[in-house]
């Protein structure tokens, strides 16, 4: 018997989301049914609802979630009912070329649940990022459910499932920030501030936060930024060079996803510096750079895929850092809301008023 729950559904491109009855099947082989406790509202949900990701409507939105395993399907090992989990949108298969090559974040055989969740009339729903957690229950592949310490409150823990991991991992996994490094982070939303926290915990000596909004820069200071630059007032490239002894930063993290901030990131690097792009640009965006600058400035230009994380390795670490008081996950939770308020949360997100709104179920 399918489980009947209420879920936040995007029915057609650009239309406001609706709370609909959703039918969630019992888990089949390799699947787990998760009782969702909390799920953050992320830009990607809005991109789905706007039709900017795929046109596979209708979508069941929500993908930054923590919950409790309610039932497991045949063949599932290592998880049982009652386990407290964060849901990952990538579950590396362990066997493909990327996984075996030690780069599981590029896995091209990541699995999601096979059985569809549906609307009441049987219409199959596409779960956002293979999750669909703006609902009291969701069905995912066992590999997507990562067990963590249950002492972490779900409103905070769920955020590790996407934006926080993306930012933290951009600094620590992709950027390889280490002790004594100088770091700059452009864009201090949920993703950028997680990068700042990651850089700070990794031992960076200088962490420069760049944003256009003073409130975001205040938040950045709480997450560990040593300096802040409002790029509407001060040229951020000059400012970062000045703060790094004239050299530029060892690692620059671009967490906005725009050509002008990418350009700033490119030029505020040390000659051997690493640029990590974690902000997601619109597909039509272009950037033009003198080829000679690409040649004469060495270092590396990287992009960070979900923080280049291995969920089963990295999620429990972030939760332990949180529980031991070294990582302020609570600081990302701007407000908690109900399922009916997701559309309003999209508007607040667009206006830059929140780091994260979190739906509590
Ligand atoms: N220069 C500097 N900062 C900027 C600029 C700019 N030109 N434009 C916007 N910002 C700042 C905003 O003020 C905000 O603080 O960038 C931040 C973006 O934060 P959010 O909108 O909260 O987005 P976030 O969830 O952090 O995601 C950032 O990463 O994963 C991607 O899709 C995600 O592209 C998005 C990016
Ligand atoms: Zn793989
Ligand atoms: Zn997300």
UniProtKB/TrEMBL annotation:
GO MF annotation: an example: mycothiol-dependent formaldehyde dehydrogenase activity
Domain Enoyl reductase (ER): 14-361
Record keywords, A-Z: Metal-binding, Oxidoreductase, Zinc
Organism: Streptomyces humicola
Cofactor: Zn(2+)
Top-level lineage group: Bacteria
Family in the record: Belongs to the zinc-containing alcohol dehydrogenase family.
SUPFAM superfamilies attached to this UniProt entry: GroES-like, NAD(P)-binding Rossmann-fold domains
UniProt keyword Metal-binding, yes or no: yes
InterPro entries according to UniProt: ADH-like_C, ADH-like_N, ADH_Zn_CS, ER, GroES-like_sf, MycoS_dep_FDH, NAD(P)-bd_dom_sf
Protein name: S-(Hydroxymethyl)mycothiol dehydrogenase
Keyword Metal-binding: yes
